[in-house]
Amino acid sequence: MWIFSKPLDQLAGEDFVFLIANRVRESATLEFKRDVYGANNAGIREMARDVSALANAEGGILIIGMAEDDDGVAKELCGVPEAEIQANRLIASCMANVSERIPGLRALPIPLVSGHVIVAQIPRSYRRPHMITFEGANDFWIRHDRQKSRMSIAEVRTAVTMTEELERKVERFLEDRRRGWAEEEKTIFVLSATPLLLEEGRIAVTDVRLARATANTTTWPRRDSRRRNDS
User: Fold this and answer.
1) Which residue has better confidence, 222 or 44?
2) By residue range, what is the domain housing residue 16?
3) CB–CB of 215/198 below 8 Å?
């Protein structure tokens, strides 16, 4: 099983040893960095570019604390100091310097035998394109294989068009559902959520607060209930 099919908090040191043993190479969705990003302007700018480039492409995984050879093949675990602080800094910096915010962006320190690595998970975004705003910039970046580059006008236009079309499809779908519910004679409780329409990220379906809020509901398409939950 591909190690990143697992939740981030289930990763362990042996998963990264697997990458080295199997000579896994960087790709359009996987990037290795030996060292943490600098706290200076150049480091912050590079961090925002790397993360937004993945989000503007197909999403992916960024591993900080993994050295690679000249061909981009995983070579050595180096570990990073103050991994939890650095992971939090990555999230905070991207929230402050990338617009729109990237839904579902996560970064966790994973313990090794000695030290930690940081794994940042950048989902494929449905709110593309994401722009770097650090120091007044308005840059759009995208990842191609192992490299990132500024998005062309055509790439920006395509990303905007695809996002707008997805939003229209979701709105049409929800409107059709609402119209159907309005025709029901029974009382209906509806809860709908989609990453396209959320400003602050995603809703975890395992969140106990969500379970508590919907404890007395049943799920679509049962038609014999006084209440219905659509999520």
Assistant:
1) 44
2) 3-151
3) no
**Same domain (yes/no): 177, 132:** no
Q: How many CB atoms lie within 10 A of CB 135?
A: 9
The model's pLDDT over 22-62, given as tens digits with 9 standing for 90+, comes to: 999 999 999 999 999 999 999 999 999 999 999 999 999 99
The pLDDT of residue 206 is 62
Question: Which residue in this structure is represented by tokens 């059709």?
Answer: 176
Residues 8 and 106 in one domain: yes
Same-domain status, 77 and 133: yes
Half-sphere exposure of 66 (CA within 13 A, CB side): 31
Residue 117 shares a structural domain with residue 7: yes
pTM of the model: 0.76
- How many domains is the chain partitioned into structurally? 2
With beta carbons less than 8 A apart as the criterion, state whether 74 and 64 touch: no
Q: Quick one: 67 exposed, middle or buried, by C-beta within 10 A (0-12, 13-18, 19+)?
A: middle
Q: Is the pLDDT of residue 195 over 70?
A: no
202 Cβ contact partners less than 8 Å away, ≥ 6 residues apart: 103, 104, 195
| d(C-alpha 219, C-alpha 230), whole Å | 6
44 and 10 co-located in one domain: yes
